[in-house]
Amino acid sequence: MDDTGTVSIVGTNLDDPGDHKTLGLTLVLSNTTWIESEPGNDTHYFKTKRGTYVRVNNVVSLLDNGKHEVGRLNNIVPESARRGDSGRGYAEEAGINFTWNVK
Q1: Which domain holds residue 31?
Q2: Within 10 A of 94 (CB to CB), how many other CB atoms are there?
Q3: Residue 39 phi/psi, 5° resolution?
Q4: Labelling 38: which of 50, 70, 73, 76 has CA 20 to 30 A away?
Q5: Within a domain: residue 1?
Q6: Could you give the CA distance from residue 77 to residue 94 in angstroms, rounded to a whole number?
Q7: Of 4, 2, 22, whose CA–CA distance to 13 is shortest?
Q8: Tell me: the pLDDT tens digits for 18-54?
Q9: Does residue 62 lie in a domain region?
Q10: pTM assigned to the model
């Protein structure tokens, strides 16, 4: 977490080393919301670009406005996340596993 009360995450494709597209996720702690962005406003990983999140233990479920899971971050506790933390995630809309790093 940084001084703004957010956690900034960058992700890359885990299963396809030839896929060099990245994603950015911002977790906003104060209202448990998330925002996803991709270069050029692409939808390679996520079609849904924002919503709320729910944390159960060390797994964060990214939810759309209908409260359906559209993605997941494993091995993260946003409230105590620090630069350099890393793990794996899954973008359900695209079916892509990705690695993530807190920036």
Answers
A1: 6-102
A2: 17
A3: -50, 135
A4: 76
A5: no
A6: 24
A7: 22
A8: 999 999 999 999 999 999 999 999 999 999 999 999 9
A9: yes
A10: 0.94
